Structures are given as structure tokens and as C-alpha cells.
């Protein structure tokens, strides 16, 4: 039989190990998706409507614009919105928005 002191230490060790295992089992993995109940509300997926005018190229009567790193011409559609006017540093859209080149780009044109 083990001495009393060794038995007490062994029992304390086993109890603490068992306690750690129980605590670890109750922790939730933060990388797992959450548990969803049946009471979810429906949220309409929002489309990204922000547009960035990257550049404008005009040659003769044709003009091309780069919006969100994609090339478009007059009458083309960006995110479902028609391009109605292409100026030297602006683009007008059918929904009333007006996209302007970044000011630093327009300032360097004359230099």
C-alpha cells in the first residue's frame, strides 16, 4: 500500500486533472460557426454599391472609364447602373451619382 502522503497527492492530482478535463469540454471553439436557433430574422443581402473611378481615357469620339478596376464605355452598366456621361475627370450615372477622379490625379494633368 502507498504511504498516506503519496496517496493524498495522487488523489489530488487525479481530481485536478479530471476538473481540467471537465472545464475544457465546456469551452466553445471560437472558429466554429455559432449555433443558430429557428428564430432568425431574414436580412436582405446588401450589394456593395460603392464605386471608385480609377481612370478615364478619351481618344477622339470614344471614351473609356475604369471603375472598380473594370473597363466600361458610355452606355455601359456598372453594378446595374447606366453610364450616361463621361467627362474629362467625372462620370455621371443614371441614378444621379457623379464619380470624380481622385484630386491628386486631376492636379497632375496640366504639369
TrEMBL record:
Signal peptide coordinates: 1-24
Task: Indicate whether Signal appears among the record's keywords.
Answer: yes
User: What is the superkingdom listed in this entry's lineage?
Assistant: Bacteria
Q: Which UniProt keywords apply?
A: Signal
What protein is this chain from?
Answer: MSHA biogenesis protein MshK
Q: Organism source for this protein?
A: Shewanella halifaxensis (strain HAW-EB4)
- Tell me the organism's taxonomic lineage: Bacteria, Pseudomonadati, Pseudomonadota, Gammaproteobacteria, Alteromonadales
Amino acid at each position: 500500500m502507498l504511504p498516506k502522503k503519496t496517496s493524498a497527492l495522487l488523489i489530488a492530482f487525479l481530481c485536478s486533472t479530471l476538473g481540467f478535463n471537465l472545464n475544457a469540454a465546456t469551452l466553445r471553439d471560437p472558429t466554429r460557426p455559432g449555433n443558430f436557433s429557428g428564430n432568425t430574422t431574414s436580412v436582405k443581402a446588401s450589394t456593395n454599391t460603392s464605386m471608385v473611378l480609377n481612370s478615364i481615357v478619351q481618344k477622339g469620339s470614344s471614351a473609356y472609364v475604369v471603375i472598380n478596376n473594370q473597363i466600361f464605355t458610355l452606355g455601359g452598366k456598372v453594378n446595374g447602373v447606366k453610364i450616361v456621361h463621361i467627362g474629362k475627370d467625372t462620370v455621371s450615372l443614371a441614378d444621379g451619382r457623379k464619380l470624380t477622379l481622385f484630386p491628386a490625379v486631376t492636379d497632375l494633368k496640366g504639369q
